[in-house]
């Protein structure tokens, strides 16, 4: 239904008798679908539309034009934009991941409230609760597990709630006697990290801990815990949360912070998105910027399996001795083709200091040229930290420089501060749609995941004990064994061992699995294809290839699991089919989360796949078990 037809329909429906709400309420525990007689009447929808200032919208499924009119102008426009995360984010009927083999495929809601504020959200929450509807919440739309879409549902869409305000002296409500004022930024729940970084770093000269991917939403990331490239220094993104405004299942707009509703506040810090209420805004601590952010990017190829084993062993011990500190984050990849890809980022080191750190390892590699070669360019250096997300600065400096993508494994060049060393491809991709914001940019290395259809994805925290000298050989052997099945990345910024004490203390006071505190890295292995979607001729996901890949991904991670069977996984970047997910995601924090869930959402209005309390619901979130 298009917008005009919808408005017409709800206009005429106003003539229909309005049934008392109680008669519409279901007596069993099944959520209503549009095919049910008790689905809200057109006049009820009209009332909701009025209550939210005309911002109730019918949700289209943009991909359907590939079927209905594959050669038409709309299909052409969609094909041009389907790899643009800003375009996808602007569609209430799409998500950044399109699905996962044998798990889910994105589906639009029936209606969305394009919320402007907490009041609109409260109206939508009340409407869903009173009419027994399946409710979903979407911000940046980056959930790998499909937790921000559901067919036959009402969507609360926060995309346009992206006000940002910096303050130099923030005190959480009710904490006036206990907490000192501190610099902070308040972000509407629909803000994406690029918007936050532009305000806080490029314009404000400060730092806020968010995610690596520029188009991830702030509310989804914080509720998962949240890591960025420099988390080894600044800690979890959720560790910097000072206050949230949140609408709970009873429709109340609440403040949550260390002094007011502290239990809810704690659950929002890593307890998983979409389970406790709808966040309308967040206030995060801002930190000082270091002088430099930098990169070490290069690929070493080993000539044989034996040489690769030795390389893995050498890298593990080099990491433990030289890189295991709060200067270095991001990734090292081990791959089936016997390459070790270094895609790491630094904070607080100039180019000379960064090069000095790496020299002993590069010397070791150079000593055996018959066994090892550097493929492509070797790039180690830094740029002024304030320019990290300054899109205009990047544009002006291209093509002389490019900077690394924090999330991906593309090899990209950089500026040796003060000296232009390389000329390589730009680091960012841009939103070229007419009227697109000037900062609508995303790291090239994240581009592969836009409109992605996942085959397999797993993560595992690696405890710091594996870096002890008597364990290093076992770790290196396991990395080698993993790499026989699939590429595997060690995300050093996603384990907080080695972080400063204040970052650890803040992380301890979150709901995240305490395993994160003692882990030096999060191992991630994944595979997928895109764009792909079931039922679209020529763009169908490869189910057979996908299942095989999923098996390889699983075997790959099993090599590390053999070392640390109960290590845990990061809720936001993990397996849809995670075994024992309650323990894997939250460890000893799960029982407390379950209590908080039943306190604030006793009837399960907020249900997401493998979210706290979701065991009580069918897989589609419609039936109470
Ligand atoms: C390409 C890519 C790169 C990524 N990079 C990183 C990274 O560098 N670091 C990292 O830590 N993670 C990363 N992630 C994972 C990411 O943090 C999570 O997927 C996160 O949940 C996405 O938030 P979102 O708002 O974009 O997604 P959404 O899909 O909109 O939301 C995710 C979940 O949060 C809920 N939610 C969203 N908004 C609200 C709200 N206002 N109130 C209540 N619940 C809400 C949704 O219901 C859903 O359950 C990445 C994901 C992708 C796809």
Give the radius of gyration.
24 Å
Ligands in the model, by name, code or SMILES, are:
flavin-adenine dinucleotide
Low-confidence sequence ranges: 1-27, 399-424
End-to-end gap = 33 Å
> What about the largest sheet?
9 strands, mixed
Average pLDDT metric = 91
Number of strands: 24
Structural class: alpha+beta
Count every helix, treating DSSP H or I runs of 4 or more residues as helices.
19
Strand content: 15-25%
Helix content: 25-40%
Broad shape:
globular
* Strand neighbour order, sheet with most strands: 3-2-22-24-23-15-16-14-17
Features:
binds flavin-adenine dinucleotide, 19 helices, 625 residues, 5-stranded antiparallel β-sheet, alpha+beta
Secondary-structure topology with pairs:
Layout: H1 3-13, H2 21-24, H3 42-51, E1 56-58, H4 65-68, H5 73-81, H6 85-89, E2 97-100, E3 104-105, E4 111-114, H7 118-130, E5 134-138, E6 153-157, E7 164-170, E8 182-188, H8 193-203, E9 206-207, H9 218-224, H10 231-234, E10 241-247, E11 253-257, H11 262-268, E12 278-285, E13 287-288, E14 292-302, H12 305-323, E15 328-334, E16 339-347, H13 351-366, E17 372-384, H14 391-397, E18 415-416, E19 419-420, E20 428-430, E21 441-443, E22 452-463, H15 472-483, E23 488-491, H16 501-508, E24 519-529, H17 543-561, H18 581-586, H19 590-600
Parallel strand pairs: 2-22, 4-6, 5-6
Antiparallel strand pairs: 1-4, 2-3, 7-8, 8-12, 9-13, 10-11, 10-12, 14-16, 14-17, 15-16, 15-23, 18-19, 20-21, 22-24, 23-24
Bound molecules: flavin-adenine dinucleotide.
What does this 3D model show about the protein?
- The protein is built from 19 helices and 24 strands.
- With 625 residues, the chain is α+β, with helices and mostly antiparallel strands.
- Strands 3-2-22-24-23-15-16-14-17 form a 9-stranded mixed beta sheet.
- Mean pLDDT is 91; it is low at 1-27 and 399-424.
- Bound molecules: flavin-adenine dinucleotide (FAD).
- Flavin-adenine dinucleotide is lined by residues 96-97, 137-144, 147-148, 158, 189, 211-213, 216-217, 219-221, 223-224, 226-228, 273-274, 278-279, 407, 446, 449, 572-573, 608.
